[in-house]
Design brief:
32% of the residues lie in helices and 18% in strands. It is of the alpha/beta class and 253 residues long. β2, α4 and β3 form a beta-alpha-beta unit. α1 crosses α5 and α6 crosses α7. The radius of gyration is 22 Å and the shape is globular.
Length: 253
């Protein structure tokens, strides 16, 4: 047997590189059909309403909106029906929509132009790095998550957005007293979210009472995803949690 490590001219073989693991994301980019009007909106209206944010860089909300009004975020706004309704109902607030699918973004951009709304901005990004590194701490008044992909198959549960890491990032950006409002028509996901949020009771308190789902808030507008679930005979579950104040540091003795 030849042991090449003892030979003076032997070259050490480089160790095989371990392939980088792809991050587990809560979405799959299925572009779908982008209509000419949506494509035009993405090209023409993006400079007005959108931001090409670079992950890892801080996002200056005050500079972007041009004011210091309270900021609310909807994660995964779909076609933007709920976000449009909320922004039109409360013009004294700023609304940030986070979505990854261009058809929905194009649809919302067209609606913003049509309704002349200037209190909405849009990001085409994954919400996790945005909450972990992009937004300032305690900068949000409300966060909405309406009818996210439930990833019903057990092997896909790791793709669900509401996980301990995401809740930690949510707690970072939600101001004390701020609210997180989620809604879903998928019962197993509803109970999983409720359990995870109850487990994080050092950071969040259940507005409806421990272990309970919230009544449907009148302020939450219906979406096509909700209507689809109702037509299928599903129940709709709302969860409303408030961010607890950070514990005070003990006084130095």
């Amino acid at each position: 047997m030849t042991i090449t490590a003892d030979l003076p001219n032997a070259r050490a073989q480089p160790a095989a590189e371990t392939p980088a693991r792809r991050p587990v994301r809560s979405f799959v980019l299925r572009e779908g059909r982008l209509t000419p009007a949506q494509a035009r909106a993405c090209d023409v209206l993006w400079p007005r309403f959108g931001c090409d944010w670079t992950p890892g860089m801080p996002l200056d909300l005050t500079a972007w909106f041009g004011n210091e009004r309270p900021v609310c975020v909807e994660v995964g706004f779909g076609a933007g029906e709920a976000l449009l309704h909320l922004a039109a109902t409360w013009p004294e607030r700023n609304y940030l929509g986070v979505e990854v699918h261009r058809p929905g973004i194009g649809h919302l951009l067209r609606a913003l132009e049509r309704h002349a709304l200037d209190n909405v901005r849009v990001l085409r990004q994954d919400a996790l790095p945005l909450f972990e590194h992009g937004l300032p701490a305690a900068s949000l008044t409300e966060v909405y998550l309406f009818f996210p992909d439930p990833w019903p198959k057990r092997r896909h549960w790791k793709r669900r957005l509401v996980q301990p890491r995401w809740l930690a990032a949510l707690a970072r950006v939600l101001a004390p007293g701020g609210t997180f409002h989620a809604a879903t028509d998928w019962a197993p996901y509803a109970h999983a979210m409720l359990s995870l949020l109850e487990d994080a009771n050092d950071r969040f308190v259940n507005v409806a009472g421990a272990g309970r789902f919230a009544p449907r808030p009148a302020a939450r507008p219906p979406t096509r995803f909700e209507q689809r679930g109702l037509r299928a005979g599903h129940n709709v579950f709302d969860l409303c949690f408030r961010r607890r104040p950070a514990p005070e540091a003990p006084e130095a003795i």
